[in-house]
Input
Amino acid sequence: VQLVESGGGLVQAGGSLRLSCLVSGSFLQINDMAWYRQAPGKQRESVATITSGGNTNYRDSVKGRFTISRDNAKNTVNLQMNSLKVEDTAVYYCYADVVHGVYSHQFGYWGQGTQVTVSS
Output
């Protein structure tokens, strides 16, 4: 199973970026998906999560600015980021709970990360 992110980059404060993550490989289903971020010198933190049924949850600092969505048919999860702030600068990681194997075990997988830099 592989998770590959795309869409990071450099943007001015107030701008927008859209991150995408594709899950590929052999598996039975994808349960929860999420975006995390890690700024230099800080711990990795959850940004937004989405269940297989589409229920979402956001950290307070991004509510109203970020939107997480997923396409179950395409095995993708997206993060639309609007009104970006300098403090949103971080490496953003995609995460997925994936069920696979003969016994349908669930494992957590991470993408390699994509840099988002917001300039003032």
